[in-house]
Design a protein that fits this description.
Blueprint: E1 6-9, E2 12-15, E3 32-37, E4 40-44, H1 50-65, E5 72-76, H2 90-94, E6 98-104, E7 108-109, E8 112-113, H3 117-128, H4 142-155, H5 157-168, E9 182-185, E10 191-195, E11 198-205, E12 208-212, E13 221-225, E14 230-234, H6 249-264, E15 270-273, E16 279-280, H7 282-309, H8 316-326, H9 328-336, H10 343-355
Parallel strand pairs: 4-5, 5-6, 6-9, 14-15
Antiparallel strand pairs: 1-2, 2-3, 3-4, 7-8, 10-11, 11-12, 12-13, 13-14, 15-16
Helix pairs in contact: 3-5, 4-5, 6-7, 7-8, 7-10, 8-9, 8-10
The structure holds fe (ii) ion (2 copies).
Length: 360
C-alpha cells in the first residue's frame, strides 16, 4: 500500500480506502480527503481503521515538519456510518488552536455519534424487522447461523439483536476518538445561498460549504469547495442506495438532482466520492450523476413491475427473490451489495414499496 496520498488537485489529497469483499470478515474504509487552504485544514470522511489513520498521521507529521502551521482544523463526517465517522483522534495529531468536528445532527443519538459497530448492526436489524424477517434474508453459508437466530428472535428479539451485534461487529474497529467533542450540524442553522444561479441550503465552513444530501442516510452531507470546483459526496452515489431501510430513494434522487444542478451551472469540475474513482470534467460528472438518477428510477420501476407480476404481493422477501431471479439489475445489486449478504437488496425493495405507499 502506498503511504503517500494522491494529490487530486492543488490542496486536495486523497487517502485511498477499501471496499469490503465481505462485511463479516473485513470492514469497509471510505476514502479520506485532506484539504489544505492557507492556515486551514479539513479532513472530510475520516474513514476507519488503523491502516488509513497511520497513513494520514504520517502525512500530517510530514506537513508539520515542512513548517506548516494550521490555525483551524475541521474534521467532517459525510455521515455517521462506521466506515466514515471514525478516527476523530486525528484532530489531536493536527493540533490546531481552533478545531471542530462536524456531523449532521441526525448522526447523533443521546449526544453520542451513531458510529459504534454493535449498536449500528442491532439498530439496522431492528429497522429491517419492521418490513421483513432479516434473519431469513441471507444465503449460504450465513443462513446456517441466521436460521438459529431466526428461532431465537421468535423468543427474544432484543437478545437476538444483541447477539448479532456482537458477532457482526467482530471485524469492525471501534471508533477512535480524541479530545475534541463532535458538534451537530443543525437543520435550523441552514442558510439559503446562491451558487452560480442554483439556490441551495447549506452550512458555511470557512470558504467551503456543506450541503445536506440525504438518501443514503438521513445524516448525509456533501462538501463543496467553490474555488476548486470540487464536490465531495461521501456515499450519496453509492451503487446500492437506498441501502438501509432508514434511507430514502426519493431523497437520493433529490440530492443527486441538486448535485447535478451545480454541475450544470459549471460550479463543479471534480466529483470525489467516498468509495470509487474521482470523476473529472463537467461531461463525465453529469453522465455519472445521470446514470445514478436513472438507476434509481429503473430500480423503483423494476420493484413495481415485480409487484404487479406477483399479483400485488407485499411480502418483501418473496418480492426480492422474484427480482433476483427475473431482473438482471437486481442480480447485479445482489453482488454489489456485498457478496452473499442479500439483506441489503431487501432494504431497497422495502424502501421502494414504502415510498410508493404500499407498505406502512
Ligand atoms: Fe461508505
Ligand atoms: Fe454509508
Amino acid at each position: 500500500m502506498n503511504m503517500q496520498p494522491a494529490e487530486i488537485k492543488n490542496g486536495i489529497f486523497m487517502f485511498n480506502g477499501s471496499i469490503s469483499r465481505n462485511l463479516m470478515i473485513e470492514p469497509m474504509a471510505s476514502h479520506m480527503y485532506f484539504l489544505e487552504e492557507g492556515d486551514e485544514v479539513i479532513l472530510f470522511d475520516p474513514s476507519c481503521g488503523k491502516g488509513i489513520a497511520k497513513r494520514v498521521e504520517a502525512h500530517i507529521r510530514r506537513r508539520k515538519k515542512g513548517q506548516v502551521k494550521w490555525k483551524k482544523a475541521f474534521l467532517i463526517a459525510g455521515h455517521s456510518h462506521m466506515d466514515h465517522a471514525n478516527n476523530f483522534f486525528l484532530s489531536d495529531v493536527i493540533g490546531a488552536p481552533e478545531t471542530h468536528i462536524y456531523l449532521h445532527e441526525e448522526g447523533f443519538q443521546g449526544g453520542e455519534v451513531k458510529n459504534k459497530p454493535a449498536p449500528f448492526i442491532e439498530n439496522m436489524f431492528a429497522e429491517s424487522s419492521k418490513y421483513f424477517n432479516p434473519y431469513l434474508a441471507f444465503s449460504f453459508p450465513y443462513n446456517v447461523l441466521m436460521f438459529f437466530l431466526a428461532g431465537l428472535d421468535a423468543l427474544s428479539p432484543r437478545m437476538t439483536r444483541k447477539l448479532l451485534g456482537v458477532v457482526g461487529s467482530l471485524s469492525w474497529p471501534d471508533p477512535v476518538n480524541g479530545s475534541v467533542e463532535p458538534e451537530p450540524l443543525r437543520q435550523d442553522d441552514l442558510q439559503i445561498m446562491n451558487l452560480g444561479g442554483v439556490t441551495v441550503r447549506g452550512w458555511r465552513v470557512g470558504h467551503k460549504i456543506l450541503l445536506p444530501t440525504p438518501g443514503h442516510s438521513t445524516c448525509s452531507v456533501s462538501l463543496f469547495w467553490p474555488e476548486q470546483k470540487a464536490l465531495f459526496v461521501s456515499d450519496a452515489d453509492w451503487i446500492g442506495n437506498p441501502v438501509f431501510v432508514s434511507g430514502s430513494l426519493k431523497d437520493c434522487l433529490h440530492s443527486l438532482e441538486m448535485l447535478k444542478a451545480l454541475c450544470r451551472a459549471e460550479q463543479v469540475d471534480t466529483l470525489l466520492p467516498a468509495h470509487g474513482l474521482v470523476k473529472q470534467g463537467r461531461e463525465e460528472i453529469l453522465s455519472y450523476l445521470d446514470f445514478h438518477i436513472r438507476r434509481l428510477e429503473v430500480m423503483r420501476n423494476e420493484v413495481l413491475a415485480a409487484y404487479r407480476l406477483s399479483g400485488e404481493d407485499k411480502d418483501v422477501r418473496r418480492l426480492t427473490r422474484l427480482l433476483i431471479q427475473e431482473s438482471p439489475l437486481f442480480r447485479m445489486l445482489k453482488l454489489v451489495n456485498y457478496p452473499r449478504q442479500v439483506v441489503f437488496v431487501h432494504h431497497v425493495v422495502a424502501v421502494c414499496l414504502r415510498e410508493e405507499g404500499l407498505l406502512d
